[in-house]
Design brief:
By secondary structure, the chain is α/β, with parallel strands linked by helices. Helix content is about 30%, strand content about 25%. The strands form three sheets. Strands 5-4-3-6-9-11-10 form a seven-stranded mixed beta sheet.
Length: about 260
């Protein structure tokens, strides 16, 4: 995969950086109107072909984007491979993807498994339009999409997805509390909590059977940022969520009993 470039490089937390890194939501939104217009005028795309299990997808990626919803990360491809090995978890389920970026993972899941999937990312028109574009060039109708900034009130008061997924979204350390706020809402306020949606068994890489209750959050994380990813998992535990590692850097997060 080609080298990634970012207009918001100062918001990243480097592996060897002792600062807590990241960027707050206010920092991400900062800038004068003139600066925003200049960024929009400079917005460029690159079309790339990416190999997923059983298919090749044409994905238009931002060469540079102020919100970093631009290029595909390794977690996307590893997660796709993991899902192919564990299709019973997602087939027939209602799925929401957080931090969809280009929409590539959701497109793959729709084409491979025919799942009911909704994409979601930062409240930004260009991101939504680019996901719709990528759906079209891969012979799909535009997937349902929700523009939502983590930590803000979710636009749907009673979520009805029984699986939330994400890959490589732990880039901004200062966004962890906002992400956990959104994730907690999606899991704790889900209609499945009152309807008794049940559970499924997942076999971990080590062969252990894990009971995964709906609603659930499945996340793949492949991009190394040192110890800071543990801050996210610790924050989830403090928020009343249970974290389990399923192997291959795929994590299951449920409400605690």
């Amino acid at each position: 995969m080609e080298t990634a470039f970012f207009s918001a490089s100062s918001l990243f937390h480097a592996d060897d950086d002792s600062d807590d890194g990241g960027g707050s939501r206010d920092e991400m939104q900062a800038g004068t109107e003139g600066e925003k217009e200049e960024q929009q005028q400079a917005l460029e795309y690159e079309e790339r072909f990416h190999k997923f299990p059983g298919m090749e997808l044409s994905i238009r990626e931002f060469s540079c984007h102020q919100l970093n919803a631009n290029l595909l990360w390794p977690g996307t491809f590893f997660f796709a491979e993991w899902l192919v090995k564990n299709p019973s978890i997602i087939v027939g389920q209602r799925i929401l993807e957080l931090g969809s970026g280009t929409g590539a993972l959701a497109i793959f899941m729709r084409k491979s498994f025919g799942v009911d999937i909704t994409t979601s990312d930062y409240d930004d028109k260009e991101i939504e339009e680019n996901i719709a574009h990528n759906c079209g060039v891969n012979n799909l109708d535009a997937l349902p999409h929700i523009r939502h900034t983590w930590g803000d009130p979710f636009p749907i008061p009673r979520p009805n997805w029984n699986i939330v997924i994400a890959s490589d979204i732990l880039l901004y350390v200062k966004q962890y509390p906002n992400l956990i706020t959104t994730l907690s809402f999606l899991l704790k306020e889900s209609e499945d909590n009152s309807q008794g949606a049940g559970c499924t068994n997942i076999t971990t890489k080590s062969g252990i059977q894990v009971v995964a209750r709906y609603p659930m959050f499945l996340m793949s994380w492949r991009r190394r940022i040192g110890k800071d990813q543990s801050l996210f998992f610790e924050g989830c535990e403090k928020a009343g969520l249970e974290v389990q590692h399923l192997g291959d850097l795929v994590y299951l997060i449920n409400n605690k009993n």
